[in-house]
Amino acid sequence: MSIAEEAKLAVRGAIQGVMEKAIELAPDSWMPGGKPDSLIATKHGSIGASVPRIDSPLKVQGKAPFAAEFELPGMVYAALMFSTVAKGRIATLDTAQAEAAPGVVLVMTHRNAPRMESMPVFLSAEKAGGGDNLPIMQDDRIHWNGQPIAVVLAETQEQADYAVALIRASYEQDAATTSFATAKRKGTEPGLFMGQPLKTEKGSADAAFKASAAKVEATYTTPRHNHNAIEPHAATVAWDGDRLIVHDASQAVAHTAWSLGKIFGISEQQVHVTSPFVGGGFGGKCLWQHQVLGAAAAKLAGRPVRIALSREGVYRLIGGRTLTEQRLAIGADQDGRFNAIIHSGTVATTRQNGMPEPFILPTMSSYGSPNIKLDVEVVYLDMLANTFMRAPGESVGTFALESAIDELAVSLGIDPVELRILNQPSEDPLKGTPFSSRHITEAWRAGAEKFGWSKRSAPGTVRDGEWQIGIGCATATYPYHRMPGGAARITLTRDGYARVEIAAHEMGMGTATAHTQVVADRLGLSRDQVTFAYGDSLMPGVVLAGGSQQTASIGASVIAAHHVLIKELLKLAGNDSPLAGLGTDEVGTLNGGLAKLDDPSRHESYVSILTRSGRDHVAVEGSASAPLETMHWSMHSFGALFCEIGVNSVTGETRVRRFLGSYDCGRILNPKTAASQFRGGIIMGLGLALMEETQFDDRNGRVMNPSLAEYHVPVHLDVPPIDVIWTDIPDPRAPMGARGIGEIGITGVGAAVANAVFNATGKRVRDLPLTLDKLM
Amino acid sequence: MTPFDYSRASDVADALRMGAGVQAKFLGGGTNLVDLMRETIERPAALVDITGLPAEITERDDGGLVIGAAVRNTALAEHRTVRTRYPVLSRAILAGASAQIRNMATVGGNLLQRTRCSYFYDDAGSRCNKRQPGQGCDAIDGFNRNHAILGASEACVATHPSDMCVALAALDAVVHLEGRGGARTLPLVELHRLPGDRPDLETALQPGELITAIELPAQPIAARSTYRKVRDRSSYAFALVSVAAALELDGDTVKDVRVALGGVAHKPWRALEAEQALRGGKVSEAAFRAAAEAELAHAVPLSCNTFKIELAKRTITAVLGELAGAAR
Ligand SMILES: Cc1cc2nc3c(=O)[nH]c(=O)nc-3n(C[C@H](O)[C@H](O)[C@H](O)COP(=O)(O)OP(=O)(O)OC[C@H]3O[C@@H](n4cnc5c(N)ncnc54)[C@H](O)[C@@H]3O)c2cc1C
């Protein structure tokens, strides 16, 4: 194309552009008095369109490479042997038979493992990503039942699995603490989360509770849960001299690279972690011992290693959600207005990571009360380090909080929806900061209307044959987070295509799709002109796919890079451009180029700018601003949940008949992928409500159901029609107006189901899961 | 998995010859055996694949059915005669496992599938008298929610997990066997043993003996039969309690009745006491409940499964009530 032709095209673009308005630069940070992201107002762009996932064609063709599908020349396969005692020393470890077995290349134990540092435990440093801080195969000590004590490498997976079964171990056992009840009797300690106690009080809650006209107080318990992503954890690992390459299943590539560098005494630049596709993360796909063992064994054997955990391996090696025992007390006046909320209790955790499931989180923001007291106590057990699992804190904390509110509503004879609306705070209940955007009341009204809440009957009065029918509701909630460290690179090429690179993650939630949409709108391009590249530690940014913060983090990173890009483009455009003389504040993106904000006829396309300046591309990098918005505003998403269930009067079986979630999460970037996120979360919540439970044998700390045959998650028949609606009101303090939706789906579901069970039967179950024996 | 030899039998004689070795095992669909081999709980030196043996369902002149041992669970459940004349069997099979597993699973393999006790499965870390006689049982004081309330022993509290077998127990099925000593038959209810002090001995089969077929006697009563399975999720879970039953009425009187229970014992449990209590008596919910009480009078709960006793009583009562309702 000649320059003249391109100029013509550019002019045509400008003429079209007269009708439209250029999209101005987004603010680089969100401060009081500042402007929202201009994208929150766009109506006809890509954002908000139900775009199918761009990775689906690859996945249905089997062309999306997962961690355990990278083929490396000379690769060997790993199998792990796990300890069968919770604490003590390995007394004997006989590996001779395994070493002699066919195909075996190496048996690695504490006797021959290379020296390495322990994992920097998650949150102990900016990029620390380890699940625990124990020595990994450095000595003969056992810290939990299931700890890996040997790695076998063989030419095939079958040979490795067979050889592992030939290893004989015996132990000198030490007294282990594996019983929650026993540990509690010895006394609890304050739970610390990132060094801070999970304890806070406003007013004097105990006194206010005592003096309240209406009171509910009860203990609620939730069991341990295991991570069961459809893709078991895996890594394909190779050393290239002193460079380490890890094809991982990861929701934290930058953290993993940095942490592996620390462990093996090399720089983070020498570690290359890729993770192009992840078959579900949910908080479990960070750095655990298997990647470290794989890398250590690869080093020792001098060959690339594939280490793919069996399902049992996931249960033995990857932490899950710990159990909770929560006391919830609410004091209210006769009209139902809260005077006091007390949410306290005890959880089990370990010394090697210290992750007290923060079940008080939902109570920090959901309701107003002059007196609030929150306290998480812990006991330390000798067990696998527990960890983050979808909405840590809120998932199980809402079970107690939202059940107790239902109990209060019943005792006061107030509609539970109205009781929740009545107790909405006007500012953050603890911090006193203003809300960035809070439309939960609209969500409640819309949900109640669509669900038919007004048809609710008195407890135990509706029957359908053997089935007792009930409906229930609960609040879902999850905060907006944005962690520091986001950064992105944008490369614009002369053909008018843009490539964004950021060390973020696609775990099946639709990240790549949604951000292709966002980048297209932000740059004034069509989606097929945008490539969103992610899942590689060599890319910019420290972007954890956790805390439902990835969307905000990517959004803010791209905004920062976009600022640099526009500055650079204006420089290149120079004096011969219709944009000549304009500053970055005066231009916006429009139709594949830049235009003056109040005069879109002054437009020049990217193609033209690059062509005229003789560049085939321009590449820029930007770092996201510090996440100050959460200091100025209280930023939370909410949902109003409704469900209808049946409880069989003969057998006590509970079956969910329909479910509705009405959410207020800011702007919804892609309704199709968002609906799937909400639905998936709700289904996981149904599992939490009805069946999920890790059978942890208190006697020896052994997990007894390490298999999907015995650890129940919902099957298709357990999943009813799920309706999902949302307010779609943009949050003016969040990039794109979007607050993140990855975790809220699971929250509140346990209580919604339990409250419906009460409505059906008049029975209040305060102990999850709601199995039939509790309802017979 | 321990390496093994594999061969495929083309007829019964072939199978018996190949399966004669001490460490040989017959391989049906492999949905249980292969799993147990992966867990190194089973370590056969040789597998004799018997899925090539005749897999036919033959109707006899007297109205009975002979079902080849290699018939797949799906084929049996979908068979027209089974669905119309023995609905309890079809329903029991369809209540089990998943479509994929049923497509693979054979009748012979279903009979001989082993318990799902998680301590039995935990070869590396738990004690089990079934795996290693005399070792002790970690289930008795452990997670025993799914375990037995009837016929258990101090050595073993495991249950037999099959749904199909519960229906077969109610239907007076007969197992056809062939071994070195020749052919013989055995009532299904005598195939599986109670654990006693040798829970490792699970059946009355001789070493190397092959199940060749199941015979269902003609049973007019079976036309009015059903299966109800109570479990922790809607599908793809083993029974906490299941009931197979058939009922024949004469006006308001129970002319004949069959009841068998699953999920409660080391074997499919034919509820003879309940049947006895009902036969010749008047139909009423109270009578059904009383029969259930009679059957479960000897039930002994474990630490986590007391609820099963009441659940079994209620389920028996409801199933009989349903059948009686349909009969009127
Ligand atoms: C996840 C899961 C869920 C399940 N859920 C259920 C459920 O809900 N209800 C239920 O009833 N079942 C359930 N099952 C079990 C399933 O029904 C059995 O695995 C299946 O019936 C076994 O049949 P098979 O042909 O695959 O047996 P195999 O695994 O091939 O063999 C099982 C045993 O039978 C022996 N054998 C096989 N054929 C013969 C023969 N002709 N003569 C002598 N010995 C023989 C084998 O040597 C072996 O010891 C489940 C299984 C799984 C894996």
TrEMBL record, chain A:
One GO MF term: oxidoreductase activity
Which intervals hold domain Aldehyde oxidase/xanthine dehydrogenase a/b hammerhead? 61-175
Gene3D superfamilies under this entry? Aldehyde oxidase/xanthine dehydrogenase, a/b hammerhead (3.90.1170.50), Aldehyde oxidase/xanthine dehydrogenase, molybdopterin binding domain (3.30.365.10)
Residues folding into a coiled coil are: none
Q: Which InterPro entries match?
A: Ald_Oxase/Xan_DH_a/b (IPR000674), Ald_Oxase/Xan_DH_a/b_sf (IPR036856), Ald_Oxase/xanthine_DH-like (IPR016208), AldOxase/xan_DH_MoCoBD1 (IPR008274), AldOxase/xan_DH_MoCoBD2 (IPR046867), AldOxase/xan_DH_Mopterin-bd_sf (IPR037165)
Q: Is Oxidoreductase a UniProt keyword of this protein?
A: yes
Keyword terms: Molybdenum, Oxidoreductase
Protein name, entry field: Xanthine dehydrogenase family protein molybdopterin-binding subunit
Origin organism is: Rhodopseudomonas palustris
From TrEMBL, chain B:
PANTHER family, per this entry?
Answer: OXIDOREDUCTASE (PTHR42659:SF1), XANTHINE DEHYDROGENASE SUBUNIT C-RELATED (PTHR42659)
Give the species this sequence originates from. Rhodopseudomonas palustris
Pfam families associated with the record: CO_deh_flav_C, FAD_binding_5
MF annotations from Gene Ontology? FAD binding; oxidoreductase activity
InterPro entries the record matches: CO_DH_flav_C, CO_DH_flav_C_dom_sf, Diverse_Substr_Oxidored, FAD-bd_PCMH, FAD-bd_PCMH-like_sf, FAD-bd_PCMH_sub1, FAD-bd_PCMH_sub2, Mopterin_DH_FAD-bd
Keyword set includes Flavoprotein: yes
The protein's superkingdom reads Bacteria
Protein name as annotated: Xanthine dehydrogenase family protein subunit M
- Ranges for the FAD-binding PCMH-type domain? 1-221
Keywords assigned by UniProt, alphabetized: FAD, Flavoprotein
